[in-house]
Design a protein that fits this description.
This protein has 442 residues and is α/β, with parallel strands linked by helices. The protein has 18 helices and 13 strands. Strands 1-4-5-13 form a four-stranded mixed sheet, sandwiched between helices. The protein has a four-stranded antiparallel sheet with strand order 6-9-11-7. Helix 11 (219-235) links the parallel strand 4 and strand 5 (239-246). The structure holds uracil. Uracil binds next to helix 10.
Length: 442
């Protein structure tokens, strides 16, 4: 068997065997298969798809490309500070999606251990790891022992994929990002589930985003992706719940790394935009229900609200940041974060109701300002991005401020302002706010 045979087979719409998929994953992880060959195969998968069996085999091969962390087994050998249920969460990606930053300390403050391996920005969507790294000193690349130790000591750790966990996904993820092969059900399902299986949680809640700022543009496609991931979860003995959430407009008001950290900190202090709150409470309620804190979703939401109101969720975030080397003085004084050189308002040119704020356009605009990567080796500018002032359904007067561009590049500032202005559609007729929680599949 050679990689050329495998590329040819997928190019010609044939089904790959388990052995062929394992051969590709092993060869690409070890470096005997070149980037350009992997790119050709990934593009063929993107175009021609995969059967359920191929997707499962791809997921398991990727999960087995490194260590499978036995967090629970490790806990079993030590004094048990935490129950034997580890719940993990992952999002299929979005624009302004700072949910993990708020949700995970919140869930950990309820006594449910959180061992979270997050991703970097992908395509036009942001990544939690990039956002965390905008806190000076925060280390996302700690070793496995420290990761487990942190979960045991303070009930939470949030890291990047720098450990030897699903290394095949790490390579394929970056490759997909640089060859426009992100929006594919088998590639997303295998990417997410391989990481979840490798990082050791036994219960998983997935935020499957839908809309212009998501990789799945409609509920039908998102439901297919959700079902594919639930099936893989079942096979791997991981109970999985998917919540479909709306990503037609950016989530919350901030888009960009430092800007989102600040919004997340405010949210943990109780100032949560309504759409962010709905997603956090819905996912959080499923997480603490799976962890058997309560068996009722509405009670679970009450518990979560209390943890925000009594400050325990924010304190847990501070503890997490401190434990991973971050400077917590930035969390208590948000003005310490470095700001972009130019912070320019964009004013409405007409009165009316906001009909649409295209999240994909905003995500791409944030990337072009430097908040995301165009090539996999690009460095991110943490300070730049967009702050929106309005949501779909809001009424605005001509001359009202619609939002701000935060940039360090004076040359592209005017173009960025025009892009923002054009992507916010305003008409005379009233418009309902966007429904945030669409559906739960388990
Ligand atoms: N998140 C991931 O980890 N992988 C994807 O492919 C998309 C979102």
């Amino acid at each position: 068997m050679t990689i050329l045979d495998i590329i040819e087979k997928k190019r010609d719409k044939q089904e790959l065997s388990k052995q062929e998929i394992e051969y590709f994953i092993k060869g690409y992880t070890e470096g005997t298969i070149a980037d350009y060959q992997a790119a050709a195969l990934v593009m063929a998968i993107f175009i021609n798809g995969m059967t359920k069996e191929e997707t499962t085999n791809l997921t398991l091969a990727m999960a087995n490309s490194g260590e499978i962390l036995d967090v629970l087994g490790v806990f079993g050998d030590r004094p048990k500070k935490h129950p034997k249920i580890i719940v993990d969460k992952h999002s299929t990606g979005g624009v302004g999606d700072k949910v993990s930053l708020i949700l995970l300390p919140l869930v950990a403050s309820c006594g449910v251990p959180v061992a979270k391996m997050s991703g970097r920005g992908l395509g036009f969507t942001g990544g939690t790891v990039d956002k965390l790294e905008s806190i000076p000193g925060y280390k996302t690349g700690i070793d496995i022992n420290s990761f487990i130790q942190n979960v045991e000591n303070i009930g939470i750790s949030m890291i990047s994929q720098t450990l030897n966990l699903a290394p095949a996904d790490k390579k394929i993820y970056a490759l997909r990002d640089s060859i426009s092969c992100v929006e594919s059900i088998p590639l997303i399902a295998s990417s997410i589930m391989s990481k979840k299986i490798a990082s050791g949680a036994n219960k998983i809640v997935l935020d499957v985003t839908v809309g212009s700022g998501a990789f799945m543009k409609d509920i039908e496609q998102a439901s297919k992706l959700a079902k594919a991931m639930i099936e893989i979860g079942e096979l791997a003995n991981r109970e999985t719940v998917c919540v479909l959430t709306n990503m037609d407009e950016p989530l919350g008001y901030a888009v960009g790394n430092t800007l989102e950290i600040k919004e997340a900190v405010e949210a943990l202090k109780g100032n949560m935009p309504e759409d962010v709150k709905q997603v956090v409470l819905e996912l959080g309620a499923h997480m603490i229900k799976l962890a058997k804190v309560t068996d009722n979703i509405e009670d679970a939401k009450e518990i979560l609200i209390q943890k925000i109101e009594n400050g325990e969720a924010f304190n847990k975030f501070v503890e997490l940041v401190e434990n991973q080397g971050g400077d917590t003085s930035y969390l208590t004084d948000l003005d310490k974060f470095e700001k972009a050189k130019y912070i320019e308002p964009v004013y409405s040119q007409k009165s009316g109701y906001i009909q649409k704020i295209n999240a994909e356009t905003i995500g791409k605009l944030a990337c072009s300002l430097g908040a995301g990567r165009i090539r996999k080796e690009d460095k991110i500018d943490m300070a730049v991005g967009i702050i929106l002032n309005k949501k779909v359904g809001n009424y605005v007067e001509k001359g009202d401020c619609l939002g701000y561009i935060h940039t360090n590049n004076e040359n592209t500032l005017e173009e960025a302002k025009q892009t923002l202005l054009k992507t916010i559609k305003i008409e005379e007729q009233e418009k309902e706010p966007i429904k945030t929680i669409l559906k739960t599949i388990s």
